[in-house]
Amino acid sequence: MFPAILSSLLVASTLPTASNAFDIVKDYSGTNFFQGWDFYGSWDNLTLGDVWWLNQTEATAEHLAYVNDAGHAIIRVDNTTNVPLNEKRNTVRITTQDLYDWGSLFIIDVLHIPYGCSVWPAFWTKGPTWPDDGEIDIIESINLNPNNQMALHTAGSCLKDDSVPQTGRNVGQDCSTGSGCVVVQTEQNSYGPGFAASGGGIWATQFDISGIYMWYWGRANIPANLAQATSTSSIDVSTWGTPSAAFPANAKCNLTEHFTPQQLVIDITLCGDWAGVPSIYGSQCGHMGPTGTCYQDNVVGPGSPKYDNAFFEINYVRAYTATKAAPTAQSTASSATVLDGSSPTATTVVTVVTTGNPSGAQATALSTKSSAVKSVAASGIGLLAGVLMTFVMIDGL
Q1: Does the residue 137 lie in any domain?
Q2: Any domain includes 99
Q3: Of 80, 89, 101, 105, which has the fewest Cβ atoms less than 10 A away?
C-alpha cells in the first residue's frame, strides 16, 4: 500500500506550483561568462570525436572561446585551419567548477547552436564521476537533424515513467542503455539553421527528487518572467505549463540512486560514436563529400565553409535554488562537502534546503550517491522538492 501512496504523491508533486520561486545563485554572462568554468585541455577520449578540446589559454588565443561585442559568449570549432590527414580539429569543452545539488534551477538562453555535417554539440550535466553519477542531456543533436533531443543516462537500471504529460516524443524508455531514455522535441526550430533564423530560444531544467523536467521556448514564445529576468531576479516556474520532457521518479527509477550533485557542461565534438557512425552519418551527409566518411569529408582539409556555423552563441547560463544558497568553495581541490557530509571528488557544491512542495510540507534535501532522506512534515507526507535547472541545450536525434 505504501508504494501506491508514494507513487501518487510523486505524480502530484512533479510539476511546479505557485510556491515554486527560485533565487539566483550563479550568473554566467557578459565579460565574466568564462569565470567559473574549467577547460578540458585534451583530446575527446569520452565520445571519441576527432577533436582536441583546448585549454583556456589556447582556446582564447585561437579565438575559439570569447565574448563578442554584443556581450554574448562564443564557443566554436576552428574553421580557419587546414587539418592534415590523421590529425584532429580544435574545439572547446567547458565544465562548471561548481556542482548543483537537488533543489537548483538552471536556465540557458542561446541564440545559435552549432550545426552541420559531422557536428555534435551538447549542453548537459554530469556528476563528479561520469557516468556513474548520472547525466542529463538538455541540448544535443548531430549532423543535419531538424530537432533537439533530451535524455537521461544512468549507470544502473532506470525506466522512464509516462504518467506526467510532456510535449516531446519518447524514443527510448531505458535510461541505462547507451542512448539513454530519449525524448525528441516536437517544437519547431529547436535545432539547426531554423533555430538560428528564428532568434534562438531558452531551455530550462528542473532537477528534483520527484522528477527531472525540461522546457524549451523559441524566442517568440518565451514566458514573460523569463523574458524580463535579470541576473539578480528570482524565477517563478508555476506558469511554464507542460514540459517538453518529463522524467518523473517512479517505482522503477529512484533518481537519488542514480544522480548526485551535477556540473554543467558545454562542448562541441566532431564525428565520434554518434555523429560519425557510418549508418547515421551516411543517411544524412554521405553525399556531401568524395569518400562518404565523416572524418575525411569534414575534419580533414579546410575548415571553411564546413564549420562556419559550428558555434554556440550564448546570452547567459544561470543557476537557481529554492532557497538562496550561494556556492561555497571548499578547502581542497579534491573534496567537496555535500549537505549530508559525504565527500565526492569535486571542488564546490551548492547545497539546498527546499522551501516546500505542492502539499505545503517542508523537507530537507539530503543526497548521497545511493540514497536520499525523505522528510515527513506538516500533517501529510512531504516529498523532497528539488533542483530546478534551466539551460538551453540540445540532444541529437
Answers
A1: yes
A2: yes
A3: 80
Overall number of domains in the chain: 1
Task: Give CA angle at 190 (187, 193), nearest 5°.
Answer: 130
Domain CATH number, residue 235:
2.60.120.200
C-alpha–C-alpha distance, residues 89 and 183, integer Å: 30
Name the DSSP letter for residue 257. G
**What is the pTM (predicted TM-score) of this model?**
0.80
Q: Provide the residue-wise pLDDT of the chain in tens; the chain has 397 residues.
A: 333 333 333 333 445 433 378 999 999 999 999 999 999 999 999 999 999 999 999 999 999 999 999 999 999 999 999 999 999 999 999 999 999 999 888 999 999 999 999 999 999 999 999 999 999 999 999 999 999 999 999 999 999 998 899 999 999 999 999 999 999 999 999 999 999 999 999 999 999 888 999 999 999 999 999 999 999 999 998 899 999 999 999 999 999 999 999 999 999 999 999 999 999 999 999 999 999 999 999 999 999 999 999 999 999 999 999 854 444 443 333 333 232 223 233 344 554 433 333 222 222 222 222 222 222 223 332 333 333 333 333 333 4
Answer whether residue 163 is part of any domain: yes
Residue 96, domain member (yes or no): yes
Q: What number of helices (H) and strands (E) belong to the chain?
A: 7, 26
Residue 192 DSSP SS3? helix
